[in-house]
Amino acid sequence: MSSLILAFGYIGGMLLVMSTFSYFWRRRKNADSSYEPWFAENRDRDIYISLIQKTDPPADELLLRSALLRRAMTDYQRLSKLREDKQALLNLVQRGAVGDDLWTILMDAEKELEQELMDVVSEANTFTENWGQFIFQNASEMVKHQRIKDLKREMKELKEKEEKAAKRREERERIGAEENERKERARSEKERKKAQEELLKDEAQKKKKISEKDKGKGKKK
Amino acid sequence: MSAGFRQIPLVANGDQVNCRAHNLETCAACDLDFAPLNQLCKNLKPINGQVPPPNIVTQNLSLQITRLKDEGNKNFHAQKYTEAIKLYSLAVDMAFQRPVWESSGLAKDELSVCLSNRAAAYIAVEAWVDAYVDAMAVIQIRRDWSKGHFRKGKALIGLKRYDEAVEAFKLGLGFEPNSEEMRIALKEAEALINQLQKE
Q: Which residues in chain B touch residue A70, judged by CB atoms under 8 angstroms apart?
């Protein structure tokens, strides 16, 4: 009889220990999984949904289409980045340089992004039939094209900057040239003065010689 | 992936979206910037937001741009450089006005050629800053096109920035090692540096 109680007690005890352990372990695990998501908030998606939710008055269709396109452009850029990041992270994880947690976060992000892409496609189809099939082609072109359009502004800014720099350089050269000129003139002045002085000295000496000669002549006479 | 949905406090008047708190398009306090969205709205207005698939392009625009560029080339070869610059500038402006939903590859081709030709014309009249700006834009659009680096180097020589010119020519030669004119220009720039050092 007592051995039966002992047996059950043993089993019961083990179950208690294991369930206690499991309780604390899960609690710790859940607390740890409040990691930062891979992507920050999707502002363009939020703008689109906020606009769609407006009922009074409802937003213009043109505005909604534009907002949807911007949402698609953002999603397209995230997709490209995600593919790059996935490749890089795969390398790191395989080499063991990084833990698995990061990989889990990335996988969650990928799943969410796939869902988001499907949402965009179905939203697009509500505006025009089959737009969903090429909205992401539109988005990818527009992303690349927008970068080209931004060039126009950048060119203007660069031109202003360069013209200022060129002016400054010209100023510096001009000041430098003026400095040199002034030095040249000062030097040539000095030389002229020296030459003049020497000339005067020569003449004075000559005069002295002549007057001495005269004196000499005078005496002889 | 991303944080959950957040309701954005905005107000929409027709085609303009502003922040609800201050009625501003770009509001630092609300941390909101609707300028790109509003700009896109304006761009899409002519077609009512109904963008076609990207392979459709406005033929007229391409024809006009090509015609202006060819006229510019004619003037350039006749050494009428000011005229050429004017024509190239018109072509460049048109190329920039291509609708943003149309093929970006086409825009790239048109722009890079017109800008490169205009840079050559600027170099011919010794407008070095303009030539430099155009060359830099060409390189931004097509980094692996040796012409862009060549024009940049030439403009830098005109601006007396010989070290940078040498770097530009070397980079260009990296993309096209068989370019004779680039090699000559590189030697010219290096010679100028040596001359400066002797002085």
A: 36-37, 40
